[in-house]
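chain below, 164 aa
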Amino acid sequence: MQQNDFTTTIRVTETPEQVFNAINNVRGWWSEEILGPTAHLHDEFLYHYKDVHICKLKLIEVVPGKRVVWLVLDNAFNFVNDQSEWNDTKVIFDITVKDGHTELHFTHQGLVPSHECYAICHDAWTNYIQNSLYQLITTGKGGPNAREGGFNEELLKKWKMQAV
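prediction:
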């Protein structure tokens, strides 16, 4: 049975190393509301967007200039019934060179059309990758979600994170 994981691809003239560095600058393209390190193997970080979405991720594969993989350790949305939809899914960034361009193939493995969040997550990931990350790579400035007030102590305790 085919899963139909969410995927999208961008092509740029920048080097694989520049694309890799932009991916790891998560605050520069996904959200300024990130807690924790986001660039090295085994790093764990917390993503937070208002009262809509929070998730904890871990870098499980980091190959400079070629690949980054995040594992979703825990996740919560305010708009779905099944809060486990993202749990244990993988967010994969594969970087290759084709025809003189660097290609970034993004896959959210486990984000499938049968999930309640799929339509909203499809549109959100498409925007983050096709627009914000693309702009960060090509111009040096992405369009991440702005900081909305930070992480309160209750939130940090629940998600087992510490303020930096």
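DSSP finds four helices and seven strands in the chain. The domain at 6-156 is CATH 3.30.530.20 (Alpha-D-Glucose-1,6-Bisphosphate; Chain A, domain 4).
thats it, cya
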